[in-house]
Design goal:
This protein is mostly helical. The chain is built from 13 helices and five strands. This is BTB domain-containing protein.
Length: about 290
Amino acid sequence: MSSVHAISITSPKYVQTTSINGIYPDLALKSSDSILFYVHTNLLNSVSTNKFQGHAYANNGTTVNLIEDSQILTVILDIMYRRPSAAVDFAPPFSFDILAAAISHLSAYGVDIQAQVSLNSDVNALAQPIFQALQAHAPTNALPLFVLAAQHNMEALAVAASTYLVGFQLVELTDEQAEAMGPHYLRRLMLMQTQREEALKRILLQPPYPHSSTPECDVLDQKALTRIWALTAASFAWDIRADLPSTALEGVLGQLAGHVSCGLCKQSIREQVTRIVAEWETVKGTI
């Protein structure tokens, strides 16, 4: 420990004059880049199971030096203080790497990651601010977020991230990433993609419903349409993707209407394409 100097820079979020229920900070923390954080030991101890790594004792006039820099320490403390502003402060463009590093440091300070970061088990309760911030990183950091969530068994975050991994090429997954997420979440990620691909194959096998024979279009004519449909579906099978856009599906299958002259067949094709697109959009797109 060393003396706190008046010229030291203080974090604007954690100043000496901040009162919580009439209680003022009684401990000063110093980050590795020499920023001071004045905190409340009673609050830290209410969240930490190891007295913030043994540091959360009232120490008037002294400071505790920590290994984290000010950005990581700010995230850690904001999580422990459950600051509502964390939902915005740590959302993009805030660095995901810094956010992930802070999450990974929580256990060292006796913080239950499940309790402080994960989605509240009460479906009617608001998500923790830090959960909202992490979730906001899913579109741009889906794989790192999924790995982080898997490492700490944060199910709701893993599900949120998996939405953006539907089309991820698993061959691009490094050994380190696979090891970090573990076999349970890796298997679920693989199953999500394969099950979507199999579902699409099944959906495509459904040809347009036949209509009653007419002088212009009899059963043989409609069998020809069924063959054309089957050939188109087969061509898809060579490039089945778990993330195939509904618009692409609609565009290719909808073109078949241009290959028939029967108005009833055209209508049947359009109706079947609409049904297929609707069914594809209901296929589960998360782990």
